[in-house]
UniProtKB/TrEMBL annotation:
It comes from the Bacteria. InterPro entries: MFS, MFS_dom, MFS_trans_sf, MFSD1. Residues 12-407 form the Major facilitator superfamily (MFS) profile domain. This is Lysosomal dipeptide transporter MFSD1. Homodimer. Interacts with lysosomal protein GLMP (via lumenal domain); the interaction starts while both proteins are still in the endoplasmic reticulum and is required for stabilization of MFSD1 in lysosomes but has no direct effect on its targeting to lysosomes or transporter activity. It comes from Mycolicibacterium gilvum (strain DSM 45189 / LMG 24558 / Spyr1).
C-alpha cells in the first residue's frame, strides 16, 4: 500500500506530462510543415506567419481565462477539454483546402493548448513535497518538449510519405486516445477533485485578476518567461526550419536533427536549472539574466556573419537558445512563491502570457520584414532576427525593476511575520 502511494504521484504526473507532450506536438506540427502549408494554401511569408500567429494570439489571450477556470474546475477537467479542442482543430486542418477554415482550426488548437500546460503544472504542488516542486516543475517543461521531437521526426516523415491529410488526421487520433488515458489516471489531488464551487461576480473576478497581477512576483515571472522563452519558441514554432534550410543551406534532415537537439539540450539544462533554483532560490533572477544574455550573445555571433554559419556554430546556437525553454520555467516558480494556492492558476496563466505574447509579435513582425525584403532569403532572415533585441531589452528591464519590488515585498512579509511571533 505504501509503495502504491509513493508511485501514484508519478503516474498522475507522467499522464499530465503526456498531455503536455501532445500539446507541444500539436503546437509545432505547422512549424515543421510550413513549406507544405505554404504550397497547400498558397500562402507567402506574411500569410503563413499569420497562420501561426493567430494560434499564439488565442493561446496567449486565453491564459488568464484558462487560469480562472483552472482555479475553479481543477486540472483534470481542463486537460480533457484541451485535448478535445486540439484534436478537433487538427481534424479540421487534415481535410480542408481553405485558408480561412484552416486558420480557424489552428485557432482551436491554440485554445486547447492554452488549457493544457498550466493545468499540468497545477498538479505538481498537490502531489509532490515542497522540496521536489522546482525539479518536478522543470521536468514537466522539458519532458513535455519531446512533443517537438514527435513533430520534427515521425510526423514530418508521415507527412512526406502519406501526405497532409493522413498526417494531421493521425495527430487528431492521438488527441482522442489521450482523453481516455487522462480520464482513467489523472486526479486533481490525492483527495480527489480540487474544484472550488464558489462563484464570483464579474467585478470580483476582475478584482482578483488585478490583485494577482499587482503582486511583483507575478510580474517578475511574466518578464522572466518573456525574455527566456520567445527566441526558441519562434525558432521551433515558425521560422527555425525555413531559416536552417533556406538561409543556412541545411538539408531538411539535418535541420530536423537540430530541432531534436533542442529538446535534448532542454532536458539536460532543465534538470540542472531545477536543482540550482531549488537549492539557491534567492539567485533565480541572476540565472534568468544569464540565460537571456547568452541567447543574445549567440545570436549576435551568428547574425554578424556575412554568409551561412558553419554547422558547429548552428549547433551551438540551437543548444544555447534551447536553454531558454527550461529557463522560462523559473517564471512559474516565481508565481508559486508569491501567490496563494487559490489564485495559482491565474498567476501561472499570466506568467505564461509573457513568452507567447513576445513570440507572436516577433513571428508576425519577422514575416512582414521578410515580405518587405523580398521573401525568404539569407539577408531577409538576417534582418528579421535582429528584432529580438527589442524583446530582450524590455525583458531585462522588467526583470530588474520587478525583482527589486519582489525583494522589498519579501522583506516586508518577513518583518510582519517576526512581529507576529514576538507579539
Amino acid at each position: 500500500m505504501g509503495r502504491c502511494l509513493r508511485v501514484r504521484p508519478w503516474i498522475v504526473w507522467a499522464t499530465g506530462v503526456l498531455a503536455y507532450m501532445v500539446a507541444v506536438f500539436d503546437r509545432t506540427t505547422l512549424g515543421v510543415s510550413g513549406l507544405a502549408a505554404a504550397e497547400r494554401f498558397t500562402a507567402g511569408p506574411t500569410l503563413l506567419s499569420m497562420f501561426v500567429v493567430l494560434q499564439v494570439v488565442v493561446y496567449a489571450a486565453a491564459q488568464v481565462p484558462a487560469g480562472l477556470l483552472l482555479d475553479r474546475y481543477g486540472s483534470r477537467a481542463l486537460i480533457v477539454c484541451g485535448a478535445a479542442l486540439m484534436a478537433s482543430g487538427q481534424l479540421v486542418l487534415a481535410f480542408t483546402d481553405s485558408l480561412p477554415v484552416a486558420v480557424a482550426g489552428r485557432a482551436v488548437v491554440g485554445l486547447g493548448d492554452a488549457f493544457t500546460f498550466i493545468s499540468v503544472l497545477r498538479l505538481v504542488p498537490h502531489w509532490f513535497a515542497p522540496r521536489q516542486i522546482p525539479v518536478v516543475t522543470q521536468l514537466t517543461g522539458i519532458v513535455g518538449q519531446l512533443g517537438q521531437v514527435l513533430s520534427a521526426v515521425p510526423f514530418l516523415a508521415l507527412l512526406s510519405a502519406q501526405g497532409w491529410s493522413v498526417a494531421y488526421a493521425s495527430a487528431a487520433a492521438g488527441g482522442v486516445l489521450l482523453i481516455v488515458v487522462v480520464l482513467l489516471l489523472v486526479r486533481d489531488t490525492p483527495q480527489g477533485s480540487a474544484a472550488t464551487p464558489e462563484t464570483m461576480s464579474v467585478r470580483q473576478t476582475l478584482a482578483s485578476v488585478k490583485t494577482v497581477w499587482l503582486r511583483p512576483g507575478t510580474r517578475l515571472g511574466f518578464f522572466t518567461h518573456m525574455g527566456t522563452q520567445f527566441s526558441i519558441t519562434v525558432f521551433a514554432l515558425m521560422w527555425g526550419l525555413p531559416y536552417l534550410t533556406v538561409a543556412q543551406g541545411l538539408s531538411p534532415g539535418v535541420a530536423g536533427a537540430l530541432l531534436s537537439l533542442s529538446v535534448v539540450t532542454g532536458i539536460g539544462s532543465g534538470v540542472l536549472i531545477g536543482v540550482v533554483t531549488g537549492r539557491y532560490p534567492h539567485r533565480r533572477s541572476w540565472i534568468v539574466l544569464g540565460i537571456i544574455a547568452s541567447n543574445a550573445l549567440m545570436w549576435t555571433i551568428v547574425l554578424a556573419l556575412s554568409g551561412p554559419a558553419p554547422l558547429w556554430v548552428l549547433v551551438v546556437l540551437v543548444a544555447v537558445i534551447s536553454v531558454g525553454g527550461p529557463g522560462s520555467m523559473v517564471g512559474f516558480d516565481f508565481a508559486r512563491t508569491f501567490n496563494t494556492g487559490a489564485t495559482l492558476g491565474t498567476a501561472q496563466g499570466m506568467v505564461n502570457m509573457g513568452g507567447f505574447l513576445a513570440s507572436l509579435l516577433l513571428m508576425q513582425a519577422m514575416g512582414m520584414v521578410m515580405d518587405a525584403s523580398g521573401g525568404l532569403t539569407f539577408e531577409s532572415f538576417r534582418t528579421a532576427w535582429t528584432l529580438q533585441y527589442a524583446v530582450w531589452t524590455l525583458a531585462i528591464l522588467g526583470v530588474l525593476i520587478t525583482r527589486r519590488k519582489a525583494r522589498r515585498q519579501l522583506a516586508e512579509d518577513d518583518r510582519f511575520l517576526l512581529e507576529d511571533i514576538q507579539t
